[in-house]
Design goal:
With about 170 residues, the protein is of the alpha/beta class. Strands 3-2-4-5-1-6 form a 6-stranded parallel beta sheet, with helices on both faces. It has a single domain, classed as P-loop containing nucleotide triphosphate hydrolases (Rossmann fold). It contains 6 helices and 6 strands, in the order E-H-E-H-E-H-E-H-H-E-H-E. It is globular, with a radius of gyration of 16 Å.
Length: about 170
């Protein structure tokens, strides 16, 4: 893959931010690109996309979170996990071995004071020119929106959950 990398932000309160990022990952993989996914905050577990990723060459996947349950007792563990994940992110960006890196749920890190937004901005601005980075999560900080080339806000119109339909394997996870 060649070209100038982009900064893409998928934000908003609707469903599909990670799914859209992974669609781009599959597109890059289809052209022989090397892709890295770093998931912040999401905990370990059997998610369909993770199960599939284990079978794909040129796709590296890192889980750097404890899950979305924040309590006073665990907030420091969540902060440490986020910081450790960001250290992995820095190494992967600066390695110049990837064509696309996805920072899944990274927008939450400044929102929860786990990381200063300027650290993310500095990393994005120091990336190799050819590297595309996708950032996902709700409430994207205005600084992330400002440095992005493309920003999409997913907004809910209607959701099955509101009708009492529970999350379904293969659709929501």
């Amino acid at each position: 893959m060649t070209g100038i990398g982009r900064v893409i932000v998928n934000t908003g309160n609707g469903k599909g931010k990670t799914t859209a990022a992974l669609g781009t990952a599959f597109r890059a993989l289809g052209y022989g690109g090397k892709v890295c996914v770093i998931q912040f905050l999401k905990g370990k577990g059997d998610y369909g996309e993770r199960l599939m990723a284990a079978n794909i060459d040129n796709l590296d996947w890192y889980i750097c979170g404890k899950g979305f349950v924040f309590t006073k007792e665990n907030i420091e563990k969540d902060r440490v996990a986020a910081r450790e994940g960001f250290e992995i992110a820095k190494k992967k960006v600066l390695s110049d071995e990837y064509d696309l890196i996805i920072f899944d749920e990274i927008t939450y890190l400044p929102h929860y004071d786990f990381l200063d937004v300027e650290e993310i901005v500095t990393l994005i601005n120091s990336r190799p020119e050819r590297l595309t980075v996708i950032l996902t999560g709700r409430d994207a900080d205005p600084r992330l929106v400002e440095i992005a080339d493309t920003v999409t806000s997913m907004e809910p119109v209607k959701h099955a959950f509101d009708q009492g339909i529970k999350a379904q394997k293969g659709i929501e996870f």
